[in-house]
Amino acid sequence: MDKTEWYLEYEIQKNRPGLLGDISSLLGMLSINIVTINGVDEGRRGLLILAKDHHQIQRLESILETMDTIKVIKLREPKLRDRLAVRHGRYIQRDADDKKTFRFARDELGLLVDFMAELYKQEGHKLIGIRGMPRVGKTESIVAASVCANKRWLFVSSTLLKQTIRNQLIEDEYNENNLFILDGIVSTRRANERHWQLVREIMRLPAVKVVEHPDIFVQNTEYTLDDFDYIIELRSHPGEEITYEVVNQNQLFSDSDFGGFDF
């Protein structure tokens, strides 16, 4: 019988030498294999484990509940956030009210790239928005994640190297395995109707689309934030406010300004 992967997370109540060894020995006695283990938060450890049936997990849970040295936080089939937490040693911050919004700081770019790459690998339509101030690493993270996911990326609108506004694609670019990148400021402020026709065509493709500045993107279009599957916020440091004051004041940038900023 094939073994099933589970995620176990526990909080240390009484830290003492040999605690991890006790947990490992218990798993071994129950014939449960450890795949990966790491600290996932202060005072917490996360483990990916393999069990042959649900009965093993029930026995494990009942025994762990009798231990006064730890408190079980999660014991479930692993979600993407669980796998990344074990891999990187920290949890992705998720908005308490809006479950599709995830927050990252600049020192978590590795975790962000890994997270986006896993999203890119999923099949079908997926619309991802990413917020952040200039030069925080948004575009670079998007491109790096596409490399990790082995996806070809296409800039539909962008300011990475120079201002880009596409009005058409060539035939082989209409590919559901491609990653389509749009800059909400450029598309909203600088594009013509031909560009928007192309955007609508791309939105109908069963492919991944990433929109920088989704709040600006939806202001003057038929799309809303509800259309987005994920919203990612990237800050230079936790607590930084993401604002669009200059854009909201209708102070449009010149081409040279666009070329000098990673919006």
Automatic annotation (TrEMBL):
All copies of domain ACT, residue ranges: 8-83
Entry-linked CDD domains: ACT
InterPro entries, A to Z: ACT-like_dom_sf (IPR045865), ACT_dom (IPR002912), DUF3388 (IPR024514), UCP021288_ACT (IPR016784)
A matching Pfam family: DUF3388
Name this protein carries in UniProt: ACT domain-containing protein
Organism from which the protein derives: Pseudoneobacillus rhizosphaerae
Taxonomic placement: Bacteria, Bacillati, Bacillota, Bacilli, Bacillales
